[in-house]
Specification:
WYL_dom, 11 helices, alpha+beta, CapW-like, CapW_CTD, WYL domain-containing protein, Alpha-Beta Plaits, SH3 type barrels
């Protein structure tokens, strides 16, 4: 058994904390470990001594400041350095999704986020949706669409987030097709019968499209270079794989369907948007044909 496998997970976690403090804050002391993990002074001393035995070249003791400092050639062994992860933690903290003690900054940097209109999902509704997905059962919901409010029987098989809202991907029993239902629009929910569908028939969910993103052609050369850097493009393009069922939301969220936006506001364009739209329509048609086939109905019935 490898040495790392023999160490308790909690100690590996504390070693990760040591490296986090060294990398992101430039130092730590024993009291940091004590307060973050609610451990005793002797245990914190053991952790520091053990870490120095394993990766002593990563830190050195500053007797003047009475703290450990990272060495210039520090190479984390327990911490996966990720700026994205750190910024997501700060965002989660500011939005209330993460408690203060789970963010390891001793002193938080001055941080703020633009206001977001929070859409709170009812916990009981989500619990029943998750139960239905696990058990492959239907649920009866009172659903408020943009046109009406009515009771519907749906068979959930997945959850999806479009960047603003959470949806449940489900078989709509009254329409014989797969659709997205916004979780916050579900008013009432109760268990239903066993689901009579195969999630594999949801071709929009099962298949992916490759989105070919480019800087908007109306940008100046300098603007184009800035956008390429923003979106981590290589050779003036970036390809992103996305489920067909999620492509619509990505296109809408990024305003890729609005050809009349000023270039500086649009920033990017989807060079293969027609191809992606066709793939979505083809997937819908394939799902419909497969469902009719399973029911023993002729393909022409799809148009009736």
């Amino acid at each position: 058994m490898a040495e790392e496998e023999r160490r308790p997970w909690t100690q590996n976690r504390r070693f990760e904390f040591i490296e986090w403090k060294l990398f992101w804050e430039g130092g730590l002391n024993r009291s940091d470990l004590e307060s973050a993990f609610e451990i005793s002074t002797p245990q914190a001393s053991v952790d520091l001594r053990r870490y120095r035995e394993i990766a002593g070249s990563n830190l050195e003791y500053d007797s003047t400041g009475r703290t450990f400092r990272p060495t210039p050639d520090m190479k984390p062994s327990f911490l996966k350095v990720s700026a994205d992860r750190l910024l997501l933690q700060l965002r989660a903290l500011l939005s209330g999704a993460l408690p203060r003690r789970e963010v390891w900054f001793r002193d938080l940097p001055r941080t703020d986020i633009a206001p977001d209109i929070v859409r709170h999902v009812d916990p009981d509704c989500l619990r029943r949706i998750l139960d239905a997905i696990r058990a492959k059962r239907c649920v009866e919901v009172r659903y408020q669409s943009l046109t009406n409010s009515r009771t519907r029987l749906i068979a959930p098989h997945a959850l999806a987030y479009d960047g603003y809202r959470w949806h449940v991907r489900a078989w709509a029993c009254d329409r014989d097709d797969f659709r997205d239902f916004v979780l916050t629009r579900i008013d009432r929910i109760k268990p239903g019968p066993a689901a009579d569908f195969d999630p594999a028939d949801d071709f929009e969910w099962e298949n992916f499209a490759k989105l070919d993103l480019r800087p908007h052609p109306g940008l100046t050369d300098e603007q184009s270079l800035a956008i390429q850097r923003d979106y981590a493009m290589k050779d003036g393009r970036r390809e992103i794989d996305v489920r067909l069922s999620m492509a619509y939301y990505f296109i809408m969220r990024m305003n890729l369907d609005l050809s009349d936006l000023p270039p500086a506001r649009a920033q990017i364009c989807l060079s293969n948007i027609d191809e992606v739209r066709k793939a979505i329509e083809d997937a819908k048609a394939s799902s419909k044909a497969r469902i009719l086939q399973r029911k023993g109905m002729p393909p022409a019935a799809a148009d009736e």
